[in-house]
Amino acid sequence: MKILFAASEIFPFAKTGGLADVAQALPHSLSKHIDIVCVMPLYGFMEKSLLQKSELSFRVTIGDNTHFLTLYTSSYKGVKTYFIQTPLLSDTEDLYSSSSGSYANNNPNFGIFCAAIVKLAKELHVDIVHLNDWHTALAALWIKESAPEIKTVFTIHNLAYQGLFDASMLKYFGIDTKYFTIDGLEFYDKLSFIKAGIAYSDIITTVSPQYAKEIMSERFGCGLHTFLQTHKEKIFGILNGIDLELFNPQTDRALTATFSSTNINFKYLNKKGLLKELGIEASDRPLFIMISRLVHQKGFDLLLDSLSEILKRELNLVIMVDGQSSYRKKLESESKRHGNLSLQIGYSEDNSHRLYAAGDFLLMPSLYEPCGLSQMIAMRYGAVPVVHGVGGLLDTVHENQQKCGEGIVFLYPTEEALLDAVERALELGKNTKEMQRVISFNMECDFSFDKSALSYLEHYRELVA
What we know:
- It comes from Candidatus Sulfurimonas baltica.
- With about 475 residues, the protein is of the alpha/beta class.
- The protein has 2 domains: about 1-245 and about 450-465, 3-Layer(aba) Sandwich (Rossmann fold), CATH 3.40.50; about 265-445, Rossmann fold (3-Layer(aba) Sandwich), CATH 3.40.50.2000.
- It has 16 helices and 20 strands.
- It has helices at about 20-30, 105-125, 135-145, 170-175, 195-200, 210-215, 225-230, 265-280, 300-310, 325-335, 350-360, 375-380, 390-395, 415-430, 430-445, 450-465; strands spanning about 1-5, 35-40, 50-60, 65-75, 80-85, 95-100, 100, 130, 150-155, 165, 185, 190, 205, 235, 285-295, 315-320, 340-345, 360-365, 385-390, 410.
- The strands form 4 sheets. The chain has a 9-stranded mixed β-sheet with strand order 3-4-5-2-1-8-9-13-14, with helices on both faces. A 6-stranded parallel β-sheet has the order 17-16-15-18-19-20, sandwiched between helices.
- Helix 1 packs across helix 16 (about 450-465), helix 2 (about 105-125) crosses helix 3 and helix 9 packs across helix 14 (about 415-430).
- The longest helix is centred in the first third of the chain and has 19 residues, at about 105-125.
- The radius of gyration is 22 Å and the shape is globular.
């Protein structure tokens, strides 16, 4: 059995969020059992000299346009990745957007990528194509049309991002108008990429069991809940994981001091070093950290409504944010007013590891969270998560339960509930013995992809049986 795993970003080659981490960790775990290769676009910012030019090259025709594709390859941790280079797709200096907003040509860009996925799948004679999020979803339709012997799995990482474009793109892509129906690609007179993945894939997965349930509801379904309900028999929730080798406080070179569950006292050296660097006094206070994109989903409205009250507590808060939004100006204003708040603008992989290692608590007030990886990484590095109980956060963080992944969970997205959760965290922090027990317990939890990879394998085998 041979699998082609397609994603718009894969760590360490390109990353904007958790998708890239998953697109590296899951194929790595699967490679222990089956033959799997990956494919992603070759973006303009990527250094071709670090890649090897492939013997494969081909062209794809989309509507009236023919695109000539050059392929490059590289391997990371034993998994080979193909990179698709062609004008339009490879002209952008970022993945999806610039400071001015989303790229206007994202629709032809990722349409070309979808066509390239189909062509590569045929060239490699794969049995299954595993598609991820809207950037790859149109490939499900084209595989059904041109290579029905190839099975497709489509994973929804975040339903809120659907790939909606003007209906005129149907002609550009050469898609028959018979597919532009409520049961197909049409969504309020727009062409929906993600609906292609849902409608025409053989199996659909979400990144946590709880999220698979939530997207069937009006609250979390992003306008697609009734459409998803019609496909519920092929929808399965499989929990994401992390690469335990990449996220390992015992070997992480980014840290001031390495540590493990049996010598967690060394964790304090990371906290002390970070706070000194940031100029934050009172380093004996509990340190809360937050690492997030600046988007509504991550609960910044709730955080900002609560921030002044939170910062009245005897604690320090360090927030690393990435992206452009009105939230940034408000956070910058708050950081000037409060000496116990430090704001780091721009994501850095090494600095994020340092934050996890330094933090006593991780704050995740997400309004919705399909899975979330930060809470798993935080527990791996001995930071106790304080989370809103939705999606994968509810699957991985448990309060007052003897289950792997102990933390603080608030069930309602209100200022009162968040402040109460912070208070419970502070009470835990005062109980040194219990705090150390929770930290050691969480650090020993298995948040790898190995167990979930077996679930994917089971579904793969069902498709080719």
